[in-house]
Amino acid sequence: MTPTHLPGRVAIPPLPEQSRTPPSPTALESFNLAPADEVEQTLLSCLRSVRWAARLTDHRPYPDLDALLAASDEAAYDLAPSDLAGALAGETLPVLPEDTYGAAHTALNAANAAYEAKFGHAFIICLDGLPPEEALDHVLQAIRSRLANDPDDERVVTAEELRRLAKGRLLRALSGAGS
Predict the structure, then answer these.
(1) Could you tell me the pLDDT band of residue 20, with boundaries at 50, 70 and 90?
(2) Relative to the CA of 116, which of 22, 105, 146, 172 has its CA 20 to 30 Å away?
(3) Does the model's pTM come out above 0.90?
(4) d(CA 90, CA 49)
(5) 36: nearest Cα among 61, 18, 14, 12
(6) d(CA 68, CA 36)
């Protein structure tokens, strides 16, 4: 059975493994010492914002992981609406697990279509730390709940979800770099 892709655009990242080891000191050292263009490419895989990636790259070296994550948060909070729009445009549709039933695809597709029609961009949600078996229900509940938001409130929620996604992706990128 081949994985089924949902039509439309829903940014639901693959769930991280539950037992991740923290990044090794060598991963942060590698991040600090790598050429700027390599670091920016790594960062752009975490959040598709050139401004965010450039800011984190330019402020190297980071003394520790907490300093890097704090800088990531600060840079994400400072993104202009155009930067957020660019980051949203860079989010891709994930693959649902093979055993996801057809009605779930229909429900998620309908909820996403309503969300995109109202807000004009992909639905973004961070699922880090959530058990895989709860992901689909969590996403459906979140889309339905957030459809009640006005556009200004939803921009704030979306920016926060992008910040959380970027932070989780950055941790995973660094975890893989030093091992």
Answers:
(1) low
(2) 172
(3) no
(4) 8
(5) 61
(6) 15
Q: What angle do CA 57, 62, 67 make, to 5 degrees?
A: 105
How many C-beta atoms surround the C-beta of residue 31 within 10 A?
25
Q: How far apart are CA 149 and CA 54, in angstroms?
A: 32
Q: Are 14 and 93 in contact (CB under 8 A)?
A: no
Please give the span between the terminal C-alpha atoms of the chain, in angstroms, as a whole number: 33
* Close Cβ partners of 165 (under 8 Å, ≥ 6 residues apart): 11, 13, 46, 47, 124, 126
Structure-token pair, residue 51:
């401004």
Structure tokens at 133: 């078996």
How many angstroms from the chain centroid is the CA of residue 77? 14
Closest CA to 6 of 81, 104, 91: 104
Q: Which CATH superfamily is domain 10-177 in?
A: Oxo-4-hydroxy-4-carboxy-5-ureidoimidazoline decarboxylase (1.10.3330.10)
Q: What is the DSSP letter of 5?
A: B
Say which amino acid occupies 61.
P
pLDDT at 93: 58
Exposed (0-12), middle (13-18) or buried (19+): which is 105, by Cβ within 10 Å?
middle
